[in-house]
């Protein structure tokens, strides 16, 4: 019975993890999915894997029992984004994303299309690889946290289900946007692991405590000798 409870608890935590399949071959993606099957985690298909396989693996992963986040960060004129999402939302994925900096109209039309299809759509605020100097180079004088909050409020107004933001902003976003707003947080690193190209990072437990809904974890799991054990180790 104790083992059953432990497994149930681990699965509940794992259901908050989106494993980023940032790999350069179909074979690697399938091997990772097989290693993680039944663990409860989501899979995230990003630009690299999408460039290799398109939507080919969506049905395969769904048949394996995974929830899927299609992370393409669409950013274009409203009509182009709307038409693209009509195609993507019929593929079987559970969540997609767009850039908040595409503006209110683009986000509102994206929300309408996705909600008609029964999937979630979230907005990218400020990439977790960016710090204050990066924003200033773009002409944005606000701090990363201020810019994230501004964009997240606009996203909610436009009808998006949530945003992508650093876990460091999760607490203030949760406070200002309420308990139901989805917060997907990349830049998650287990204690002692390398930050790589991420600037604004937290550990998994810190991120959940701050209010994150889902944690995006890539290299600490996908480059581990045993991905399933690496997933379990997030909670140790």
SSE blueprint:
Elements: H1 2-14, E1 17-20, H2 26-36, E2 42-45, H3 47-53, H4 56-63, E3 68-74, H5 78-88, E4 95-99, H6 104-117, E5 120-124, H7 132-137, H8 144-158, E6 162-164, H9 170-177, E7 182-185, H10 204-210, E8 214-217, H11 219-222, H12 227-233
Parallel strand pairs: 1-2, 1-8, 2-3, 3-4, 4-5, 5-6, 6-7, 7-8
Question: Can you describe this structure?
Answer:
The protein is an alpha/beta fold. The chain has one domain (15-233): TIM Barrel (Alpha-Beta Barrel). It contains twelve helices and eight strands. The chain has an eight-stranded parallel beta barrel, surrounded by seven helices. The chain is globular.
Helical content band: 40-55%
**Mean pLDDT value:** 91
CATH superfamily: Aldolase class I
The CATH level-2 architecture is identified as Alpha-Beta Barrel
**Tally of separate domains:** 1
Please tag this protein with its features.
236 residues, alpha/beta, TIM Barrel, 8-stranded parallel beta barrel, 8 strands, 47% helix, 15% strand, globular
Concise summary:
With 236 residues, this protein is α/β, with parallel strands linked by helices.
